[in-house]
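Troubleshooting: if your tokenizer reports a length mismatch, compare your output against this known-good record of 363 residues.
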Amino acid sequence: MVGILNAIHAQLAGIAEVGVMIVSTTLVTLVMLLIWQTNLFLALCFPLVFGSVELIYMSAVLSKIKEGGWLPLVFASCFLSVMYIWNYGSVLKYQSEVREKISTDFMLELGSTLGTVRVPGIGLLYNELVYGIPSILGQYLLSLPAIHSTIVFVCIKYVPVPVVPQEERFLFRRVCPKDYHMFRCVARYGYKDVRKEDHHAFEQLLVESLEKFLRREAQDLALEGNLNELDMDSVSVTSKDSGAPAGDGTEDLRIPLMHDQRSGEPGTSTSEEASSALPSSVMSSEEDPSLEYELAALKEAKDSGFTYLLAHGDVRAKKNSFFLKKLVINYFYSFLRRNCRGGAATMRVPHMNILQVGMTYMV
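Known-good structure output:
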């Protein structure tokens, strides 16, 4: 028995090593042609020389398939099939979500109440969309008699960096007008980040990041509005002085406001002029009534608690699909989804805070 296992291990190692050599030769050839832009004759000589040696090794390994080398090939084929089916079904599910997302016009027709009752609380709706409103929200609106006052669409993405700092974990974006209290949140994790934080810490960090986003948004809007007012004032002043004989009149459009008063002062800069010309309301965002109202509503929703809104999705192939696609999606992919760890297990969320609704994705 030990001898058989050693023979299988040797066959597996030989196939793997020769396979890596062939893949490396193919990739280097592509690099020579596309990146280095080597002469075509020289680029083809490389795989001919090294590939011929590798094919000899491969033929020697393949000659042992009948003696037990077929077993690792069967295992490799099974694992490859499982990974391909999972990736194929996941891509079709994501495309279905993108295709069936809710339009902003429909949300505007529903109004800020979303056609239902808004109760205090924060609803974290998990989905895979970076842009748009997921269709699972429509299922919640149809299934539940009420919806939370603040809704955050959470999308978890892994970025190609080792670790993402806590202060850069979340990226927020507003969805619909302010009175809807709906936000898009992209939670970024590095490939070395381990999602073992307690759900209380996750919620606290999310709320703090959302408050920072609201304050920064209010400051940007106030700054933009005051800069527009300054531009309008400069245009009006220029139009009043356009009757004066000063060249062709186009130079005044390029002169900033109050340039004549500040041109003689040494040590002044454009940024200082702009900051001194802005009112104090831009510097202190807490005086904005709309911002204060949003922060108060967010605090009330936080005190009412968090609810994790998850989709219990069922992926089914369309009726007009091919038989092979129906077999793969309806049976094999569904089996893998039923036996993999769900979102509740990976997010370390208490079951009392989870609310699931069923949805069928036709792919």
